[in-house]
Amino acid sequence: MQPFTAYLPDESATLALGAALARAVVPGLVIYLHGDLGAGKTALTRALIQAAGHKGTVKSPTYTLSEPYRVQVDGQALNIIHYDLYRMSSPEEFLDAGFREDFDGQNICIVEWPEKGEPVLPSPDVRVLLNVSGAGRAVELQALSPQGLLCLDRLSFAPPP
Ligand SMILES: Nc1ncnc2c1ncn2[C@@H]1O[C@H](COP(=O)(O)OP(=O)(O)OP(=O)(O)O)[C@@H](O)[C@H]1O
């Protein structure tokens, strides 16, 4: 399957993509988010989690490294766990924190800065690449497993013209 690409001219387009992803994700999905500082990884994650029904704030878990949210996906209650591994000093920290057990085939795990968790981080179903481009963001989504293919197949998102 070809990667899905789009241009997100402003933050509202990022919010719309996050909402579309909230309707497309499936239990157990692992999403890696790649992009430089300020690329919009947290904005996209926040939009997804809030569109899945979380009413409170969603901040980047810079110091806690991970933050769970109880949400509804396809009418099913499950956890979305948001990771920001930027400040992790070594991949062992990921194991010592017990994060690997979170990847249980049910929780949806969204990982910012996955590079910091290699090689102990479970492999992704979907890889999202975000890049600053002009005033907006260029985004590419790649499916890397049957679950990822299913998610991108369910994704219904038309970027603004
Ligand atoms: N499509 C867009 N066009 C323009 N600005 C955007 C877009 N999407 C998000 N932004 C803005 O980009 C800024 C950085 O976003 P965000 O904090 O999500 O980045 P990040 O990738 O998580 O960065 P970090 O790795 O530093 O946590 C925010 O001010 C957000 O409003």
From TrEMBL:
It is found in: Cytoplasm. Keywords: ATP-binding, Cytoplasm, Magnesium, Metal-binding, Nucleotide-binding, tRNA processing. The keyword ATP-binding applies. Its main location: cytoplasm. Coiled coil: none annotated. PANTHER family: TRNA THREONYLCARBAMOYLADENOSINE BIOSYNTHESIS PROTEIN TSAE. The keyword Cytoplasm applies. It holds the Pfam family TsaE. InterPro entries: P-loop_NTPase (IPR027417), T6A_TsaE (IPR003442). NCBIfam families: T6A_YjeE. It comes from the Bacteria. Gene3D superfamilies: P-loop containing nucleotide triphosphate hydrolases. This is tRNA threonylcarbamoyladenosine biosynthesis protein TsaE. Belongs to the TsaE family.
